[in-house]
């Protein structure tokens, strides 16, 4: 077929013809056109290239693209080599329906927004995952990133950071360098790296800039032994030792790089030979091969489109930019065919998925000598391997981390680890105070033979755990601090001063963070709970004289007492007109028996026989009410005896405190006690002795101390003592380091991480064993952050936090169960209530039939029904004549005994345990949406022990209230977990309906954030500590949180039983009142029935009287018999 009969398809090519990238790609495209039609001469179509030079300018690229679309009617465009060019050409492609085949990769392109942009390379996120996996394999957790200060760098770096964070790898320092930077600017930026601890450096920028950076890094000593340098494919794809200067190649020695794997093939070998001859370059890179394959794919696609029947006018004869959307009517079909093309090309399998090349293995190379050595691969399925999957069975057994041996900068064979940019050549001298009376915190033993000091305890365990978590080694030894006098706050101040004088490098112990001490040393963040707690003796014999009245409130007692009198009066009214009633006669002779009968129902021992069925019905209902009230009373009293309510008098009492500590001043400034007498004690044993003796025997009513000491005391003596309140008026314990020490911030970060992961809680349980007691429930554009910023380990990588100004930890918020007027039916499910009623009726009928057969006549069914109903209260008095009916009744009584016992036990359990409904298992757990989102999910859940929960975010206090009101079953939540400051503010608004039922110190509280190294962070921390100590912080809390009870664990204790109120029995009283009113109504009607009949006879016409008597007669018989 002659060339003149071929259908020519115009294709635009836009490249910077002076760049290495443009020259290599253009050469590859020309070779691809030649090869494709040599192999496919029979094709009816021919791609005709129209090449334009962008000259490296985005505006020029847009201009020539518009010219190609408007004047040459191109059906496709190949070659934008910058991100900005690709974006603008994508917009033009979407508008004109012309596919744009891009040779650059970017994670920021959305296939839905850039429908006609096809990326020949695979998505950049594949490379980021490979780099993160490579970093993780060497156990590097902190790295440095150097990237190009350009739009491409700014848009791609966030995706890289996300991939690293998934592997818990922190980019602790980022350096943005412009491609136009001078040599001095590059050197100044590189010198900053020498002052950092991190020595693993990633470079992601153009190859021109990367070559310059590595050359100057070599000159300033950053390519020596101990460093690791990793470059991305943007650099490695252009690294050709045969084409580069010797200095550039020398600076690459020991560098690791990632590039896309190019599978070997005969086709590739033949192409490479021709390439070297025609271009005089050594080897084609991945971009050349992708461009080659793009031409093949485009040629196949246009041929498939051409082979389909089309309407005339596929090409546009005239066009301008105002009508640019008409430039390619066949563009949609061409795009579809391009997405369907699949073949094996020079770069590997060609297949576009989501408009991007499918994921391919990454090749890990190590530059050494005059070339590069492949040391392994990375794939999404297999991770880091030395060989690709088909060759895994030949894996080298001596490989480390799935890689072959690597030569690092400086010729080292050992992979670099993080360095400590401090004086770590010497062993750090850690001062430890010689504690007396609180050995669980710190015990120091000195071995005179080895002259070694051995320290153990909670403080030492936390310090060891934090140091071991560092990515570098810190050698240290413990040095005992001996004070001539009693170890007190003055001694601790002296120890702090010793650190200031550089006699010690750090202090480990129960060292409280104070404002004054922060002037001389740096503290880590606190590793204990903040504040001071109050503990008292849980005296079983200290109940009030009338303690047994507490299960019911005053109003309930009054209403109940009045009810007995009302019941007595109602029974008299219903019974006194019966001839055989026990309540006939003068009032002074009836009052006593009536009251006796009424009040004897409390013990179900009433004896008087009732004649009226109405009075029997009333008594049955009343007995049921009495049964429920007695059962609830027993349950509430049992709950109160199980969970003691402890009330501490706050006026004129003796308060013990930790002798030698500064807690004495804190008690005066922050506690609610009025005019207390303060007595000092020095050990846990003295605390116990003072509380045992009490005020009368020279002891104290309560002990106040910092929460860590209180927790330790309760761990030893928790069964006899109880924490009743606490105030966040101190700053907790922290480790001490010299001013400006990098270790202080590093250890702080590890402490925060230990708290988030729950390890700190495990150490507390190891030393404090809390099971026996219940503890408190309850970028450079910005210089600082003020707000509800939670201290997190990963955030500490980038900023310095002040000391916390809120309580640490998270709490669980639930809706309080209000008194339900029908709560007494909850112990038994609906089906059981129905079954009991049916069984009672059935038993009644059976006994009635048996008794009727026994007497030879039908017995009154009302009496039999009375017998069965009285068994509900185990108070039946009527006798049965048949032995069979007695046996049936005996079985029924056994059933009722078990049922009533089970009902009482279940109701007691409900009142004791289920006063609050939480989502501890299988419920919906709400959390603060946006507050370290999965954090709360990972942090809080791992520390608060929730199981099988469904997490759901909420974003405001109104959302919290609505969710808890709905509950988990109706689309809300069973409980809300949030940080304590948020919960306190919520309770300030809705405290009458909700409560905090538990808290855990699993977060590090709120703090202000400042730039790394900012002096303000330390100064602000000192002032925060000061306002906490002098009580000002508590005043501010009261100002904004309003209700002091919000933070009081004594008031918010979910285990504190509630007195039963009238509302709890409102339903029963309604039933009883209704029955009484109904009985009175029937009795009144019965009394006036004769008068009504007489009036009826006198008024009605004679012919109606006889007919109406037929109606009144059965009514009168029914009334006489049953009423």
TrEMBL record:
Q: How does it sit in the membrane?
A: Multi-pass membrane protein
Which segments constitute the Solute-binding protein family 3/N-terminal domain? Answer: 427-771
SUPFAM superfamilies in the record: Periplasmic binding protein-like I (SSF53822), Periplasmic binding protein-like II (SSF53850)
Q: Name one GO cellular component term.
A: membrane
What are the residue boundaries of the Ionotropic glutamate receptor C-terminal domain, all occurrences included?
A: 429-770
Q: Which Pfam families match?
A: ANF_receptor (PF01094), Lig_chan (PF00060), SBP_bac_3 (PF00497)
What InterPro entries does this protein's entry cite? ANF_lig-bd_rcpt, GABAb_receptor_plant_PBP1, Ionotropic_Glu_rcpt, Iontro_rcpt_C, Peripla_BP_I, Solute-binding_3/MltF_N
Provide any one GO MF term from the record: ligand-gated monoatomic ion channel activity
Location(s) in or outside the cell: Membrane
Chief subcellular location: membrane
Where do the TM regions start and end? 554-574, 586-605, 617-637, 831-850, 856-875, 887-905, 925-946, 1068-1088, 1094-1112
Q: Which CDD domains match?
A: GluR_Plant, PBP1_GABAb_receptor_plant
Keywords, alphabetical: Glycoprotein, Ion channel, Ion transport, Ligand-gated ion channel, Membrane, Receptor, Transmembrane, Transmembrane helix, Transport
Q: Which PANTHER family match?
A: IONOTROPIC GLUTAMATE RECEPTOR
Protein's recorded name: Glutamate receptor
């Amino acid at each position: 077929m002659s060339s003149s009969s071929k259908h020519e398809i115009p294709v635009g090519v836009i490249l910077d013809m002076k760049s290495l990238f443009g020259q290599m790609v253009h050469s590859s495209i020309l070779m691809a056109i030649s090869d494709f039609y040599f192999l496919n001469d029979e094709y009816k179509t021919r791609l005709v290239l129209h090449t334009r030079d962008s000259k490296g300018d985005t505006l020029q690229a847009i201009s020539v693209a518009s010219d190609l679309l408007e004047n040459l009617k191109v059906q496709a465009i190949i070659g934008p080599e910058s991100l900005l060019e690709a974006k603008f050409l994508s917009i033009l492609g979407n508008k004109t329906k012309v596919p744009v085949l891009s040779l650059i990769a970017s994670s920021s392109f959305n296939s839905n927004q850039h429908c006609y942009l096809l990326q020949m390379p695979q998505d950049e996120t594949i490379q980021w995952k490979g780099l993160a996996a490579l970093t993780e394999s060497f156990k590097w957790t902190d790295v440095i990133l150097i990237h190009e200060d350009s739009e491409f760098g700014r848009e791609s770096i966030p995706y890289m950071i996300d991939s690293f964070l998934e592997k818990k790898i922190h980019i602790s320092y980022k350096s943005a360098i412009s491609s136009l930077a001078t040599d001095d600017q590059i050197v100044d930026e590189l010198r900053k790296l020498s002052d950092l601890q991190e020595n693993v450096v990633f470079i992601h920028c153009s190859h021109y800039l990367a070559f310059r950076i590595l050359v100057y890094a070599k000159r300033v000593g950053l390519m020596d032994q101990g460093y690791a340098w990793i470059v991305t494919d943007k650099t490695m794809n252009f690294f050709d030792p045969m084409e580069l200067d010797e200095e550039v190649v020398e600076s690459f020695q020991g560098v690791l790089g990632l590039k896309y794997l190019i599978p070997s093939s005969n086709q590739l070998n033949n192409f490479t030979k021709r390439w070297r001859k025609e271009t005089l370059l050594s080897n084609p890179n991945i971009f050349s091969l992708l461009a080659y394959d793009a031409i093949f794919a485009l040629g196949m696609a246009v041929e498939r489109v051409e082979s389909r029947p089309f309407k005339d006018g596929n090409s546009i004869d005239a066009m301008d930019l105002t009508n640019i959307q008409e430039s390619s009517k066949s563009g949609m079909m061409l795009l579809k065919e391009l997405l369907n093309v699949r073949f094996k090309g020079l770069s590997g399998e060609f297949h576009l998925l989501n408009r991007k090349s499918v994921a391919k293995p990454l090749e890990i190379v190590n530059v050494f000598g005059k070339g590069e050595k492949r040391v392994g691969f990375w794939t999404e399925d297999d991770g880091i391997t030395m060989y690709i999957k088909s060759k895994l069975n030949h894996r080298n057994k001596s490989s480390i981390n799935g890689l072959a041996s690597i030569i690092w900068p400086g010729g080292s064979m050992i992979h670099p680890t993080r360095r400590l940019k401090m004086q770590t050549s010497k062993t750090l001298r850690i001062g430890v105070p010689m504690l007396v009376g609180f050995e669980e915190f710190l015990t120091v033993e000195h071995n005179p033979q080895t002259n070694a000091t051995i320290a153990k305890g909670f403080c030492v365990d936390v310090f060891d755990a934090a140091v071991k978590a560092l990515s570098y080694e810190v050698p240290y030894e413990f040095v005992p601090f001996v004070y001539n006098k009693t170890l007190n706050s003055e001694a601790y101040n002296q120890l702090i001063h010793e650190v200031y004088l550089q006699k010690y490098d750090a202090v480990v112990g129960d060292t409280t963070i104070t404002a004054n001490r922060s002037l001389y040393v740096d503290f880590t963040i606190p590793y204990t709970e903040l504040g001071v707690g109050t503990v008292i003796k849980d005296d079983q014999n200290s109940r009030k004289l009338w303690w047994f009245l507490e299960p019911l409130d005053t109003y309930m007692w009054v209403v109940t007492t009045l009810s007995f009198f009302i019941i007595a009066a109602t029974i008299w009214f219903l019974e006194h007109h019966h001839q055989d009633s026990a309540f006939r006669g003068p009032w002074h002779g009836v009052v006593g028996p009536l009251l006796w009968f009424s009040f004897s129902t409390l013990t179900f021992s009433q004896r008087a026989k009732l004649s009226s069925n109405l009075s029997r019905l009333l008594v049955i209902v009343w007995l049921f009410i009495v049964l429920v009230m007695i059962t609830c009373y027993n349950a509430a009293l049992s709950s109160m005896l199980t969970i003691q309510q402890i009330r501490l008098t706050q006026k004129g009492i003796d308060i013990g405190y930790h002798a030698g500590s500064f807690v004495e001043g804190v008690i005066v400034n922050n506690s609610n006690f009025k005019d207390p007498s303060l007595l000092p004690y020095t050990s846990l044993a003295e605390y116990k002795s003072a509380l045992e003796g009490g005020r009368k025997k020279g002891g104290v009513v309560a002990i106040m101390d910092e929460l860590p000491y209180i927790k330790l005391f309760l761990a030893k003596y928790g069964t006899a003592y109880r924490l009743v309140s606490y105030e966040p008026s101190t700053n907790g314990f922290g480790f001490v380091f010299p001013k400006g020490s990098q270790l202080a911030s590093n250890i702080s970060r590890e402490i925060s991480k230990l708290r988030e992961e729950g390890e700190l809680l495990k150490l507390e349980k190891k030393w404090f064993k809390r099971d026996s007691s219940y503890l408190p429930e309850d970028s450079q554009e910005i210089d600082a952050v003020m707000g509800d910023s939670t201290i997190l380990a990963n955030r500490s990588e980038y900023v310095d936090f002040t000391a916390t100004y809120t309580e640490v930890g998270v709490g669980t918020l639930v809706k309080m169960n209000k008194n339900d007027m029908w709560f007494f039916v909850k112990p038994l499910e609906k089906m059981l209530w129905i079954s009991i009623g049916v069984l009672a009726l059935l038993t009644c009928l059976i006994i009635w039939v048996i008794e009727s057969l026994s007497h030879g006549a039908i017995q009154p069914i009302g009496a039999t029904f009375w017998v069965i109903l009285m068994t509900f209260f185990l108070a039946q008095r009527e006798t049965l004549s048949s032995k069979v009916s007695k046996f049936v009744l005996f079985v029924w009584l056994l059933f009722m005994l078990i049922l009533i016992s089970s009902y009482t036990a279940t109701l007691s359990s409900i009142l004791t345990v289920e006063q609050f409904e939480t989502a501890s298992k299988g419920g919906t757990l709400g959390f603060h949406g946006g507050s370290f989102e999965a954090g709360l999910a990972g942090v809080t859940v791992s520390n608060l022990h929730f199981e099988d929960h469904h997490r759901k975010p909420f974003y405001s206090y109104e959302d919290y209230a609505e969710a808890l009101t709905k509950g988990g079953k109706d689309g809300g939540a069973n409980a809300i977990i949030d940080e304590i400051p948020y919960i306190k503010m919520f309770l300030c608004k809705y405290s009458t309906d909700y409560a905090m039922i538990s808290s855990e110190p699993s977060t590090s509280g709120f703090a202000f954030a400042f730039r790394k190294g900012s002096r303000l962070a330390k100064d602000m921390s000192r002032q925060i500590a000061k306002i906490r100590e002098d009580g000002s912080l508590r005043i501010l809390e009261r100002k904004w949180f309003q209700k002091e009870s919000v933070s009081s664990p004594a008031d918010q204790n979910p285990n504190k039983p509630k007195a039963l109120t009238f509302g709890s029995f409102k339903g029963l009283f309604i039933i009883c009142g209704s029955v009484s009113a109904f009985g009175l109504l029937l009795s009144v009607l019965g009394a006036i029935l004769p008068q009504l009949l007489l009036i009826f006879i006198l008024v009605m016409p004679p012919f109606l009287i006889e007919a109406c008597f037929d109606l009144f007669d059965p009514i009168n018989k029914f009334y006489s018999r049953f009423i």
